[in-house]
Amino acid sequence: MSAFPYRLVATDLDGTLLRSDESVSARTRDALAAATAAGAAHIVVTGRAVPWTRHILDDLGYEGIAVCGQGAQVYHAGEHRLLTSLTLDRQLAGLALSKIEAEVGPLALAASRDGLEGEVLMGPGYQVHEGPLPYVPYEDPSELWSAPLTKLYIQHPVLTDDELTRAARATVGGLVDIVMAGPGIVEILPLGLSKATGLSLAARRLGVKAAETIAFGDMPNDIPMFGWAAHGVAMGNAHAELRAVADEVTTSNEEDGIAIVLERLLAG
After folding, report:
1. What is the spatial distance between Cα 221 and Cα 68, in angstroms, rounded to a whole number?
2. Cα torsion for 113, 114, 115, 118, to the nearest 10°?
3. Exposed/middle/buried for 215, CB within 10 Å: 0-12, 13-18, 19+?
4. Which parts of the chain have pLDDT scores under 50?
5. Which of 10, 144, 195, 219 has the most CB atoms within 10 Å of its CB?
6. DSSP string covering 113-151, please?
7. What contacts 268, CB < 8 A, 6 or more positions away?
8. Residue 1: its pLDDT value, please?
9. Which three-class secondary structure state does DSSP give residue 88?
10. Tell me, what's the pLDDT at 2?
11. Residues 14-50 pLDDT 10s
């Protein structure tokens, strides 16, 4: 077996490491374990905030650092504590939201609160993906702004995710960042925040450089991470925008796309 060429393996969760049932295949677990045994660190880099990520990390037996909330949170899974946390300026977010709605009409809203136990609030009309992730419905708009937030989620009744993302960026691109993180998931983030900023902070703690990193992802919010890492691998199910900037495209998350690449690299 040849030496593994990277010191850090960064993987997105949904649509990348996780299959549609939120499980990680035995083959992928084995490939990641082999990469770790060869000297690489594995780091999860996800748009999910810590409360929606922690159960997955625990199931994986993951005790290292994870980047959550699109880079807003650097979380130590083994110690169950936040190392860094960046919140969204609520006044600026409210201004951005009003500008977007003036351009495209009323939006359905949700928000992720800051902290290890931060709740996800769901407003009227917001379409929730069925599954085990907990959320708290709200009716009074003031509830949305009553505590520190890591992000806002926006949905439009007619526009597609791509159309809403483009319209929002064109309207408020200088105030906040807008990313599409998955089907039905368009987010308002602090300006300048991305998976790349969170990953660079985590890598610095691990003593690893961008040139020593391979990254896997599937959505446009992974583009900054691919720009930071030495090698970006898009899943076979990836969005066209990510595939366009990837160094290579593997098979889908349902077909062990991560494992296929890692096994090839481990074999030299």
Report:
1. 12
2. 0
3. buried
4. 1
5. 195
6. ESSTTPPEEE-TT--PPPSS---EE--SGGGGGSS-EEE
7. 1, 2, 3
8. 45
9. strand
10. 56
11. 999 999 998 999 999 999 999 999 999 999 999 999 9
Lookup result for tokens 């062990």: 256
Helices (DSSP H) in the chain: which residue ranges? 26-37, 50-60, 90-104, 161-172, 195-206, 223-228, 240-245, 257-267
Q: Is 254 helix (H, G, I), strand (E, B) or coil?
A: helix
Q: How many CA atoms lie within 13 A of 80 on its CB side?
A: 7
Which residue type occupies 194? S
- The encoded tokens of residue 149 equal 């937030």
Single-letter amino acid, residue 68: C
- SS3 assignment, position 184: coil
Q: How many helices (H) and strands (E) does the chain have?
A: 8, 14
